[in-house]
Design a protein that fits this description.
243 residues, 8 helices, 20% strand, 42% helix
Length: 243
C-alpha cells in the first residue's frame, strides 16, 4: 500500500488547493464536524488571552472552526503545503490569526509556542512519525494545555471499513479524478486504511503522555470513520476541562 509522504504529499496538496474547498463542501457535515471538535476544547472566555495552534490548517477550514470556538484567541495556523496556505490567505481573517509555512516535524525547532491548546485536523495519518509529532505537540503545550485531534480513524468494525471503501470508490476518487488529483484521493483512501483504529490512536495518545484521553465519534455517515480525540498535557488542574 503506497502512501504519499513529506514533499510528495505537500506537492499533491499544492496541486489540489484550487479545488479542495469545493470537494470538501460535497461532504455533508465537514465544516460542522470541525466546529464541534474545536468547541470540545472548551476554551474559556471565548479564548481571550489564549494562544492556540491549528496544526495542519490546510485552506483554513479548521482555522475558521477554531476562530468560531474561540473568537478572542490568538491563533497560529501552520501547514506544509504552500498552495493550501495561499488559498487560506485569500480569505478574511482578524489580525489575531497568522499563517505559517511549516511542517509538523519542524514545529519543535521553529520557535513557536507555548500554546494553551492545539487542534490538529486530518493531520496524523499524513505524518511519517506520529509519535515524534505528538511528543513535539505535548512539548509545545503549557501545563494543562488541551489537545483535540479530528481524524479519519476507523472504529475497527468491518462494516465501517467497507463503507469507507465504498464511499471512496463511488464518490471521493471519481471526484478527485475529475480535478486532476487522483493520486491524492487514492492516498486519502489508503492512508485511512493504513492508520490506527480509533482505540489504537487513543492508546498512542496515552503513551505519548496525554492524560484523560477520550474518543468521540462524529455523527452522520462518518460515524465509525471520523473521530475526535481529546486529552491534555498532563496537569491535574486541567482534568476537568476535557471531561
Amino acid at each position: 500500500m503506497t502512501l504519499l509522504r513529506d514533499h510528495d504529499l505537500a506537492r499533491a496538496f499544492d496541486h489540489a488547493s484550487q479545488t479542495y474547498d469545493r470537494l470538501t463542501a460535497m461532504n455533508p457535515g465537514y465544516r460542522a464536524d470541525l466546529l464541534r471538535s474545536a468547541r470540545r476544547l472548551r476554551l474559556p472566555r471565548g479564548g481571550a488571552g489564549l494562544r492556540l495552534l491549528d496544526l495542519g490548517c490546510g485552506t483554513g477550514a479548521s482555522t475558521r472552526a477554531l476562530l468560531k470556538a474561540a473568537p478572542y484567541a490568538h491563533i497560529t495556523a501552520v501547514d506544509a503545503s504552500s498552495g493550501m496556505l495561499e488559498r487560506a490567505l485569500t480569505k478574511p481573517w482578524p489580525a489575531r490569526v497568522r499563517f505559517l509555512h511549516l511542517t509538523a516535524e519542524e514545529l519543535h525547532t521553529s520557535g513557536q509556542g507555548p500554546f494553551d491548546a492545539v487542534l490538529a485536523a486530518y493531520l496524523f495519518r499524513n505524518v511519517t512519525d506520529p509519535d515524534a509529532v505528538l511528543a513535539s505537540v505535548r512539548a509545545l503545550l503549557l501545563p494543562g494545555g488541551r489537545l483535540a485531534v479530528h481524524e479519519y480513524s476507523l472504529s475497527g468494525s468491518r462494516a465501517h471499513r467497507t463503507l469507507w471503501n465504498a464511499v471512496c470508490r463511488g464518490v471521493i476518487i471519481p471526484a478527485g479524478t475529475l480535478t486532476g488529483d487522483r493520486d491524492l484521493y487514492h492516498h486519502l483512501r489508503r492512508s485511512v486504511l493504513a492508520f490506527d483504529t480509533a482505540p489504537a490512536f487513543a492508546s498512542r495518545l496515552t503513551r505519548a503522555g496525554f492524560a484523560d484521553v477520550r474518543t468521540i465519534p462524529v455523527a452522520g455517515w462518518q460515524t465509525g470513520i471520523v473521530h475526535t480525540f481529546l486529552g491534555h498535557s498532563g496537569s491535574p488542574s486541567a482534568k476537568a476541562a476535557v471531561s
